[in-house]
Write a structure and sequence with these properties.
Strand order of the largest sheet: 3-2-1-14-13-12-11-10-9
Structural class: alpha+beta
CATH class of the largest domain: Alpha Beta
Helix content: 25-40%
Shape: globular
CATH architecture of the largest domain: 3-Layer(aba) Sandwich
Number of domains: 2
Strand content: 15-25%
Number of strands: 19
CATH superfamily of the largest domain: DD-peptidase/beta-lactamase superfamily
């Protein structure tokens, strides 16, 4: 074994670049290891379409449209039923549905667009833009309400569905009059999530106050138009008759048409109208914000700001009773970002998106950043239950196509450190003078104990068969598998932020990987 190890060390030494010469960290963008992932997904699409069709019938949806997104592309669409029952107008991918609260992320994105332009700050007090709110608070010690609070449903306003839905056409003057009369609070600001349509109406007003343009115009000019969203509108009377989806309510075993609501200041919380095709362009922008990288930075909203929207800014709760598609227990945690909902399940899968519901309509869009897939579901029946079904579809796609999340390639800084560390093991000869370890290392790890541990473990696994590649957990942390004839070891370490980066933490243990 000793001769084999020495020869390995000589080979590795020839490959090693000196840590001291390593002066710049090279970012490695994640990638998908399966080059056939789209083909595998395509084989599942017909079954997925049949599932949407059955579900739409079960839920009494007069019409529906769905789309599947893969790597920022709309790769499959399906439609059924009618946009207008009376005229029997069939739904198409260009049919325009009111998407209700799916609108909220557009309002949040517009706020971030203004923030990135230096026009406002997220921690600005709302009273700076809506002075009518001054002096209104639940308790004397309550924190001031900020723009950030409004964006994350954290302002202390009461949950206001379905009341808020019926305020859609209110004017800015109506909103200010409501505030002047005095608002009631359910919580003190900054302490509790509670869904507030009123809060997003205020954001719409702030967009107008800061930019000089109504929120609808600002979003059209700064998000819709750059993305090429041609089939998008706020006011239903501007939508071509053959494209407009009418809304219905299923009651007494029949459909009753709902009165369409005009656009107003509450449209900032739920008034947008869009086709599946146009919305897919917006969804692609969000999906393409992942992963972080150095290329393709152009877009109407900064990628870092989009990823900020996707973060869990305000905890909602834990659903311990949640179950996976196969019926097994799978608890989920949920939170709210900026105009978007965040969910993490028992398997560590993160889902980002939002539902929408108004009289006559129900919708949802959800995507998994680390899997590069997403779905859109639009329907024209009141409060159509779309979110849970979309989650099941995504789970089906992942399971059926055996999808894996993105892989983070090991950075050069990790692989170079791995090579140098392997030259020292298992004897740790000249480790203290190698320059490989941070100044804390030998205070936290006894050299004698390290030598004893490595010698024992290497003896247990027998002659070395291979040294596995570095598996990155992030740019400065990872592990590799050392395979012997009688077993495997897992070698892991974490590097410091200094230049050159050095090993600050280390573990060597038996492995079943």
């Amino acid at each position: 074994m000793r001769k084999q190890w020495i020869s390995c060390c000589l080979l590795l030494t020839l490959l090693v670049n000196s840590t001291q010469a390593q002066t710049r960290q090279q970012y490695q963008a994640p990638y998908f290891a399966d080059s056939n992932r789209l083909q595998k997904l395509q084989s599942v699409f017909p079954a997925v379409e049949a599932s949407y069709r059955r579900y739409a019938s079960q839920q009494h949806m007069p019409g529906y449209a769905f789309g599947i997104m893969v790597d920022g592309q709309l790769v499959y669409t399906g439609t059924g039923g009618y946009t207008d029952i009376a005229s029997q107008t069939p739904v198409s991918s260009k049919s325009m549905f009111r998407i209700a609260s799916m609108s909220k992320s557009f309002t949040a994105a517009a706020i971030l667009h203004l923030r990135d332009a230096g026009k406002l700050q997220l921690d600005d007090p709302v009273t700076r833009y809506i002075p009518e709110l001054k002096g209104q608070q639940l308790t004397k010690d309550a924190a001031v309400i900020t723009i950030r609070d409004l964006m994350s449903h954290n302002a202390g306003f009461p949950e206001d569905n379905p009341w808020g839905d019926r305020q859609l056409a209110d004017t800015e003057a109506d909103l200010l009059a409501l505030i002047k009369k005095g608002l009631h609070f359910s919580n003190t600001p900054g302490e509790q999530y509670e869904y507030s349509n009123l809060g997003f109406a205020m954001l719409g007003y702030i967009i107008h106050k800061v930019s000089g343009k109504p929120y609808s115009v600002y979003i059209r000019e700064n998000i819709w138009q750059p993305l090429g969203m041609k089939d998008a509108a706020w006011e239903y009377t501007t939508v071509p008759k053959q494209q407009l989806a009418h809304g219905y309510r299923w009651i007494n075993n029949n459909w009753r048409e709902e009165t369409l609501l005009h656009d107003g200041i509450y449209g900032a919380m739920g008034g947008m109208i869009s086709s599946l095709e146009s919305f897919s362009r917006y969804m692609a922008m969000h999906m393409n914000a992942w992963p972080a990288g150095n290329a393709n930075l152009a877009g109407p909203i900064q990628k870092s700001s989009l990823r900020d929207m996707h973060q869990p800014h305000r905890f909602i709760g834990l659903n311990a009773q949640s179950r996976a598609t196969d019926g097994s227990a799978c608890p989920t945690a949920s939170a709210y970002g900026y105009g978007l909902r965040w969910t993490k399940d028992c398997q560590g899968r993160i889902m980002v998106g939002h539902s929408g519901g108004l009289p006559g309509f129900g919708s949802n869009w959800t995507f998994l950043p680390e899997y590069g897939i997403g779905v859109i579901f639009l329907a024209n029946v009141t409060y159509a239950p779309t979110a849970g079904f979309n989650s099941r579809i995504l789970d089906t796609l992942i399971r059926s196509a055996a999808l894996k999340p993105r892989i983070l390639p090991a950075s050069s800084i990790l692989t170079n450190t791995q090579k140098q560390l392997l030259t020292l093991l298992p004897h740790w000869h000249e480790a203290k003078t190698s320059g490989l370890f941070a100044d804390n290392f030998f205070d936290d790890y006894s050299l004698e104990s390290l030598q004893q541990e490595a010698g024992s473990l290497f003896t247990q696994i027998g002659p070395i068969l291979q040294y596995g590649p570095m598996v990155a957990e992030n740019q400065l942390r990872g592990y590799c598998i050392i395979e012997g004839t009688n077993g495997k070891l897992k070698l892991s370490f974490t590097l410091t932020p200094e230049n050159p980066a050095k090993i600050q933490e280390y573990h060597l243990e038996k492995s079943n990987l």
